[in-house]
Every structure is written in C-alpha cells, then in structure tokens.
Amino acid sequence: MVADVHRTILNGGIFLYPPTKDAPNGKLRLLYECAPISFIIEQAGGLATTGKGPILDVVPEEIHQRTPLYMGSKKDIEELLHYLDKD
C-alpha cells in the first residue's frame, strides 16, 4: 500500500480501496493503514475519505476496524465525491 500511495503522490491519480460485496466495510484497517497514510496525504495538500467523510474524522469503535479508502489530490477526490454522491 505504501508503494502505491507513494506512486500516487509522485505521479498523481487516485488510490482507492472501495467497499465490495465481500467486504462492505472495506479491507484496509483504519488505525494501522488508513489513518497514518491519510495524515501524510492531507499534509501534502490532498484529501483522504471513506466516501462519506474524511478518514481522519472517523472515530475508531474497535482496534481492527476496517474502512473504505479513497485518497489523492484535492481536485481529483472532490471530483470522485461528486460522482459517488450521485449514487
């Protein structure tokens, strides 16, 4: 995951791990994977979201909580959220 996000920071684009039928809460763990990388992305001027709100605003309810993840440049994520809101 770190290498994929690093490539996204260098080259642009969106890193996403959306919910699926098999993993409706996502597969990535909030405390170990999503929150630390989201902090770096936001400090670099990007956005990181669950699709419903910022990752860093999610209050963990359990230690191994999983969440969907979308991260990238502010412009790209705002455009993505526009399309997700249409669903």
Mean pLDDT: 94
What is the general shape? globular
What fraction of the residues are assigned to beta strands by DSSP? 15-25%
Q: Rg to the nearest angstrom?
A: 12 Å
What is the CATH architecture assignment? 3-Layer(aba) Sandwich
Number of helices: 3
**How many E strands?**
5
Count of folded domains: 1
End-to-end gap: 27 Å
Ranges where pLDDT stays below 50 over 5 or more residues in a row are none
Classify the fold: give the CATH topology: D-Maltodextrin-Binding Protein, domain 2
CATH class: Alpha Beta
Structural class: alpha+beta
> Major sheet, described briefly?
3 strands, antiparallel
Q: What order do the SSEs take from the amino end to the carboxyl end, as H and E?
A: HEEHEEEH
State the share of residues found in helices, binned by percent: 40-55%
Strand arrangement in the largest pleated sheet = 1-5-3
Describe the protein in words.
The protein contains three helices and five strands. The strands form two sheets. Strands 1-5-3 form a three-stranded antiparallel β-sheet. The chain has one domain (2-85): D-Maltodextrin-Binding Protein, domain 2. With 87 residues, the chain is of the alpha+beta class. The model has no long low-confidence stretch (mean pLDDT 94). Helix content is 41%, strand content 20%.
Write a brief structural summary.
This is D-fructose-1,6-bisphosphate 1-phosphohydrolase. The chain is α+β, with helices and mostly antiparallel strands.
What characteristics describe this protein?
D-fructose-1,6-bisphosphate 1-phosphohydrolase, 3 helices, three-stranded antiparallel sheet, alpha+beta, 41% helix, FBPase_class-1, 87 residues, D-Maltodextrin-Binding Protein, domain 2, two-stranded antiparallel sheet, 20% strand
